[in-house]
Design goal:
- By secondary structure, the chain is of the alpha+beta class.
- It has five helices and 15 strands.
- It has helices at residues 49-66, 104-109, 139-144, 150-172, 214-222; strands at residues 2-6, 10-14, 20-24, 27-31, 34-35, 41-45, 73-76, 82-85, 89-90, 93-100, 118-127, 177-188, 191-195, 203-207, 210-211.
- The strands form three sheets. Strands 9, 10, 11, 12, 13, 14 and 15 form a seven-stranded antiparallel β-sheet that branches. A five-stranded antiparallel β-sheet has the order 1-2-3-8-7. Strands 5-4-6 form a three-stranded antiparallel β-sheet, with no helix packed on it.
- α1 (49-66) crosses α5.
- The longest helix is centred in the C-terminal third of the chain and has 23 residues, at 150-172.
- The chain is globular, with a radius of gyration of 17 Å.
Length: 225
């Protein structure tokens, strides 16, 4: 097994059987000293955060699979806080589905929107490019630059909205409010699907108006950190 990717919140290894192993880490992202799942900078570590990401990803992938939404997940990994997944060709995109205005959306469009304003299932695409601040990209540009096809765009938008409605409903049953969520999509055996993870690192969730930390979200959803 060899390491093929070192990320901000997890590492990825290629196994001898052709699958990949994802190991979740305790690192957290943010701006300055403020934790923010939408940020690109690692600002430190929180004990138990990797375990929380692992457990939440298992729960949300299970929900998606039960609803017939495919992902690259295969099984729990052999080591702590790891999963085994099919190797995918990542599109290097973040597909963001927003329920409310928050974070970068407000910073971009602050003359037109206030934090917390409703944005029912608004979908945006950004490039995964830390050097350029994960810039927004239009659907026409995605096609013109041959990043993905029009059919893949339509599938990602529809699937992101379907998955978001499912996850938001699951959270709502626990008194939690989904603010926004981002997905990574890729191609597995010629098929577009959700890859990577779906955890507190990829969503903002509020309880009584306060954004929860990853470990708090896991405890609220799973009953444990």
């Amino acid at each position: 097994m060899r390491e093929i990717y070192t990320g901000k919140t997890k590492d990825v290894f290629l196994r001898d059987d052709g699958y990949v192993l994802l190991r979740f880490k305790d690192t957290v992202t943010g701006v300055g000293d403020t934790v923010d799942s939408g940020a690109n900078e690692v600002i430190g570590e929180v004990a138990g955060k990797g375990r929380s990401s692992f457990n939440l990803t298992l729960r949300f992938f299970e929900l998606l699979h039960e609803a017939g939404i495919p992902t690259h997940f295969v099984s729990i990994g052999p080591d702590a806080n790891t999963i085994i997944a099919k190797r995918a060709r990542s599109f290097r995109l973040e597909v963001i589905c927003r329920a409310k205005a928050w974070g970068s959306f407000v910073r971009r469009y602050g003359n037109h929107v206030r934090e917390g304003d409703p944005l029912p299932s608004l979908v945006e695409f950004t490039l995964k490019d830390d050097e350029r601040g994960d810039p927004l990209i239009t659907e026409d540009a995605l096609v013109a630059l041959d990043i993905v096809s029009r059919e893949a765009i339509d599938y990602m938008k529809g699937t992101a909205r379907q998955a978001t409605a499912l996850i938001a409903g699951h959270l709502s049953q626990r008194g939690l409010e989904l603010i926004d969520i981002k997905y990574e999509f890729g191609e597995v055996d010629g098929r577009t699907m959700i890859i990577d993870e779906v955890s507190g690192d990829s969503m903002r969730v509020a309880c009584q108006g306060r954004i929860l930390l990853q470990t708090e979200l896991a405890e609220a959803v799973l009953g444990r950190a």
